[in-house]
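Title: [Solved] TF-B3 domain-containing protein 3D structure

Original question kept below for reference.
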Amino acid sequence: MKDLETLKELVASITDWKSLEKMSCKPFKPSILHLAISKDAPQLYREEELIQLKNFSNLLSSVESKPKTHNTGQMMTRKRQIEEMPKEERVTPAMIKKPRSIILVQNRPSPDLPAEFKNRVSELSGHDLKFLMHKRLFCSDVKPNSNRLSMPINEIKCEFLTEAEITKLDERDGPNGKGRLVGVEVTVLDPCLREFTLPLKKWSMQRTDTYNLVTNWNSIVSTNKFEEDQELQIWSFRVGNKLYLILNKL
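Solution (posted by the thread starter after getting help):
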């Protein structure tokens, strides 16, 4: 029990990537410590690392669920095999679950969107306007080497994707579904109504899957001078079948 409390205090003390790097081995290898940290601070990990940790957790669970044996040497060998397993063997789409449902956050009235955004939606002949979430930017959301905005699915207040888009978020571009995630192209309106085109991807994690705006996110951060703890409202709407997101700076 004391060891568990110590681990919780350690996880709580990690607030940025530099702190995590000091505790990590290079190259990255999944471990029990990384698994515990990723549950409370998934934003500290890259997409490939989160996938490795998810599969590491699945493999550990399968080991622990097997009948106990007195041959402890075999058990230790099995755990070492898991940690030393090549990345291409750890990452298999068949091992990644495909959650479709969104856990609705507190049932509160949606906030009002400022008039300039509503006017722009009307100019674009937009429809299906929805409030998705209130987002406070983490350090990892504004660090140049991260280049992504994370939106945990369990913090999103409503479903905003079509069935076709949900399916596409699980697709990969390599042979046999082993390449990089394809994602869905999204047009993002920043607080000054400038348009940016970014891919939206879904990363599978231990506690909750996360939608992420990637690739060109750094351009939005630098253009708007976003900083850690900046608060945003994120909305969605559609122009025809095309998905748009709105970033309303608070």
